[in-house]
């Protein structure tokens, strides 16, 4: 178990008994859905005040340029070798699942861009205790509002909204600050055998792959609480446990 304390939003120290690491990419549609489902399970978990959540970086396509000159449909069609009509059908399924979690995806607005700078921004936000808020803002910006997650000006504006210093954010992103931290997260995911995201690691005991239903997360939280064992990937039986990998999203 992870020992120590953390500060809650109101400044009260609570014992941290379990750490949950979530590998995900800002450019992953199932990662936002998985975030909502996990949050639902955690909200109803009786030991939620003893849980520390940490976001870890992962890139589905590190080879992307800063911005792809084309639509999300065109990009996935090219990457997966699928007809555009089939890609749009896949989007419809994802949009339906997202809507079930209160998310309004608009794939026609999505700006296809490399997510590396966004991950560096996330690590900067972590230094200020704003990592979860940054993750929420970037996922919503990307999938619901058509923002360019590779654009430094957008990331700076987002940082200011979160209460970060504009000059600090711009200085970090215009340089290469936090690049090593992003690469370390990706390397650790590789070492753990992560091949798709979202991927949830509970106290380094259990791994959960995909945007599983809230009930699966709830069961895993109960099972992992107070237990010690080697990391075991828990397989869900529901088709909603979908992931995105280097070859695209399921």
UniProtKB/TrEMBL annotation:
Membrane spanning residue stretches: none
Key words of the record: Isomerase
InterPro entries per UniProt: DSBA-like_thioredoxin_dom, Thioredoxin-like_sf
Gene Ontology terms for molecular function: isomerase activity; oxidoreductase activity
Residues forming coiled coils: none
Matching CDD domains: DsbA_FrnE (cd03024)
All copies of domain DSBA-like thioredoxin, residue ranges: 20-221
Protein name per the record: Dithiol-disulfide isomerase
Annotated source species: Arthrobacter crystallopoietes BAB-32
């Amino acid at each position: 178990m992870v020992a120590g304390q953390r500060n809650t939003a109101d400044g009260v120290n609570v014992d941290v008994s379990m750490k949950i690491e979530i590998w995900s990419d800002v450019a992953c549609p199932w990662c936002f859905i998985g975030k909502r489902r996990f949050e639902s399970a955690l909200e109803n978990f009786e030991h939620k005040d003893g849980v520390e959540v940490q976001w870890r970086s992962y890139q589905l396509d590190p080879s992307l340029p800063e911005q792809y000159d084309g639509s999300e449909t065109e990009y996935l069609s090219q990457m997966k070798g699928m007809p555009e009509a089939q890609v749009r059908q896949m989007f419809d399924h994802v949009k339906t699942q997202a809507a079930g979690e209160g998310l309004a995806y608009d794939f026609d607005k999505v700006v296809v861009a490399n997510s590396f700078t966004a991950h560096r921004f996330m690590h900067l936000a972590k230094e200020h205790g704003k990592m979860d808020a940054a993750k929420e803002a970037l996922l919503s910006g990307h999938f619901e509002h058509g923002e360019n997650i590779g654009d430094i000006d957008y990331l700076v504006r987002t940082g200011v909204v979160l209460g970060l210093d504009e000059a600090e954010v711009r200085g970090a992103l215009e340089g290469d600050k936090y690049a090593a931290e992003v690469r370390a997260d990706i390397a650790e995911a590789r070492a753990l055998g992560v091949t798709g995201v979202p991927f949830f690691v509970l106290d380094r005991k259990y791994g959960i792959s995909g945007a599983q239903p809230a009930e699966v997360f709830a069961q895993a939280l109960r099972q992992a609480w107070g237990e010690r064992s080697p990391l075991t990937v828990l397989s869900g039986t529901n088709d909603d446990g979908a992931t995105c990998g280097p070859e695209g999203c399921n």
